[in-house]
Amino acid sequence: MLQRLFGLLALIALSAVISGCVSTVLEVDNKSAQPIPAKLVGEMSKRKMSPADPILVRIFKQESELEIWKRKRTGRYALLKTYPMCRWSGKLGPKKKDGDRQAPEGFYHVSASMLNPNSQYYLSFNLGYPNRLESALGYDGEALMVHGACSSSGCYALTDQGVAEIYAVAREALRGGQAAFQVQAFPFRMTAENMAKNRNDPNFSFWADLKRGYDIFEANKRQPKVSYCDGRYVFDAEFGADEPSDPLAACPPQPNAEGLAVATSFENSTGGVGTPAGSRAISAHAYSDGGMHPSFRKLLRNRGAKDLAKMTSVTAVPVSRPDAALADPHSANE
């Protein structure tokens, strides 16, 4: 009897050790099934949105911020919440090859099958890199994600709690009938001033291409239609039966240029990609590897890596657009 008791205790102890290292199926399922926080649902309601309404995601490397936009009854999108990114790797510029540690820049579409409830970085969703244009250009790489755990090697990392919120919002939008949500990943907020500062960067022509899609969304708060031809992105062009199938082939003639006209008009009204008075061009960047939101960097500098590791439970810290973020009693500096 005593031997059996020791055996049972040993089994319990072994189970406890294993459970400390490996998540059970139940724990994984609970993570991916967490509801949208009531406070965020309340914010949706105030803005005449529902959890089932479509979403759109924008990512900005330089500012280390991720935005969730939701479509209102008017058909236009409105900013729901801005999340600080804890870590991204590489430097400003597109990802071109596997192992370059670059986080992607471009336009992507995420379907339900790309949500990963079993991620080793808490929860995640795949960006879908490389897209058709990137594949045609010979770019390669795989498993480029938005995830938790505040660690990156070519991905966009948030806190665990932050990615849990985003995952829940995305899950409910996809369940509500959205086939895929668009992710727009930019090097920085593509203002005329930022474009002017970076006009001597080797990636400038690529960024000017992305800016057209950025400006269409900024102008009318509607998701731009994305096509590929002539080795570049083309936005809001209606090619009809001649929709380009080869991203590297010349664009079909006489596309509907309505969307491009909107973008051009908006560029002109905001200074386009010219040089505002007093701006100084930057010929080269002195990059460190990647970046993180300033609030996280301050905590790392003041308190060290141990406190940074604890930030997986923190979501709301100051962002560059505080009017867009929901108030939260927690702070990375408390």
UniProtKB/TrEMBL annotation:
<keyword id="KW-0808">Transferase</keyword>
<dbReference type="InterPro" id="IPR038063">
    <property type="entry name" value="Transpep_catalytic_dom"/>
</dbReference>
<keyword id="KW-0961">Cell wall biogenesis/degradation</keyword>
<dbReference type="InterPro" id="IPR005490">
    <property type="entry name" value="LD_TPept_cat_dom"/>
</dbReference>
<dbReference type="GO" id="GO:0008360">
    <property type="term" value="P:regulation of cell shape"/>
</dbReference>
<keyword id="KW-0133">Cell shape</keyword>
<protein>
    <recommendedName>
        <fullName>L,D-TPase catalytic domain-containing protein</fullName>
    </recommendedName>
</protein>
<feature type="active site" description="Nucleophile">
    <location>
        <position position="155"/>
    </location>
</feature>
<dbReference type="GO" id="GO:0009252">
    <property type="term" value="P:peptidoglycan biosynthetic process"/>
</dbReference>
<comment type="similarity">
    <text>Belongs to the YkuD family.</text>
</comment>
<feature type="active site" description="Proton donor/acceptor">
    <location>
        <position position="147"/>
    </location>
</feature>
<dbReference type="GO" id="GO:0016740">
    <property type="term" value="F:transferase activity"/>
</dbReference>
<dbReference type="GO" id="GO:0071555">
    <property type="term" value="P:cell wall organization"/>
</dbReference>
<dbReference type="Pfam" id="PF03734">
    <property type="entry name" value="YkuD"/>
</dbReference>
<comment type="pathway">
    <text>Cell wall biogenesis; peptidoglycan biosynthesis.</text>
</comment>
<feature type="domain" description="L,D-TPase catalytic">
    <location>
        <begin position="55"/>
        <end position="186"/>
    </location>
</feature>
<keyword id="KW-0573">Peptidoglycan synthesis</keyword>
<dbReference type="GO" id="GO:0004180">
    <property type="term" value="F:carboxypeptidase activity"/>
</dbReference>
